[in-house]
Specification:
The complex is a heterodimer of chains A (113) and B (110). Chain A is mainly β. Chain A is built from no helices and eleven strands. In chain A, the strands form two sheets. In chain A, strands 2, 4, 5, 6, 9, 10 and 11 form a seven-stranded mixed sheet that branches. Chain A has a four-stranded antiparallel sheet with strand order 1-3-8-7, with no helix packed on it. Chain A is globular, with a radius of gyration of 13 Å. In chain B, strand 9 and strand 10 form a beta hairpin. The termini of chain B are far apart. Classes of the chains: A mainly beta (113), B mainly beta (110). At the A-B interface, strand 4, strand 5, strand 9 and strand 10 of A face strand 4, strand 5, strand 9 and strand 10 of B.
Chain lengths: 113, 110
């Protein structure tokens, strides 16, 4: 069974704080993804990575950065958290080649006050 | 511009009946399509997929139909059960990864 874990289920941070969200997968997947989910907006891709130290911007990268130092770990960083970054953050991983369905972690509900 | 559209934000179906969730897409280059199910406060879980070269794929109570000429796919759940109440996301895959729809909230009524 594929397992994708995220460091926190719930997080409360103050405006301006630096926030780290960590994701680990145990299936040796090449691809890893960070999404945010907001009501009425579905899943929006923030960043993805297809290899160690490689990263690509998704649809909404502004205000975020990522780090992938090891194949199994993909971190999302909010350099200076703002209230409009309050959201559910979802990490996913997949194989590089099709069929490459994405497997998701349980999500982190981040609230920025 | 939305490439994957789920036009029904919610759908209510009686237990035991068929649930039909719809999805439309605009990009004819998509190679495969997937459906995910999501409960509140959990990550989406993969349900079923279909390659663009097929028109039907079945897995237990779940069947996905693809109509390439209409750029339309649908997920059929028969019979619907209370545990099927969740948000369902349609996704389309191609060279650039997955593109998700905004989701349909399925509510199964007793």
């Amino acid at each position: 069974d594929v397992k994708v874990t995220q460091s926190s289920r719930y997080l409360v941070k103050r405006t301006g704080e630096k926030v780290f969200l960590e994701c680990v997968q145990d299936m040796d997947h090449e691809n890893m993804f960070w999404y945010r989910q907001d009501p009425g907006l579905g899943l929006r891709l923030i960043y993805f990575s297809y290899d160690v130290k490689m990263k690509e911007k998704g649809d909404i990268p502004e205000g975020y950065s990522v780090s992938r130092e090891k194949k199994e770990r993909f971190s999302l960083i909010l350099e200076s958290a703002s209230t409009n970054q309050t959201s559910m953050y979802l990490c996913a991983s997949s194989r590089l080649v099709p069929p490459n369905e994405q497997y998701f972690g349980p999500g982190t509900r981040l609230t920025v006050t | 511009d939305q490439q994957v559209k789920q036009n029904s934000p919610s759908l209510s179906v009686q237990e035991g009946r068929i649930s039909i969730l719809n999805c439309d897409y605009t990009n004819s280059m998509f190679d495969y399509f997937l459906w995910y199910k999501k409960y509140p406060a959990e990550g989406p879980t993969f349900l079923i997929s279909i390659s663009s070269i097929k028109d039907k794929n079945e897995d237990g109570r779940f069947t996905v139909f693809l109509n390439k000429s209409a750029k339309h796919l649908s997920l059929h759940i028969v019979p619907s059960q209370p545990g099927d109440s969740a948000v369902y996301f349609c996704a389309a895959g191609g060279a650039d990864g997955l593109t998700f729809g905004k989701g349909t909230h399925l509510i199964i009524q007793p």
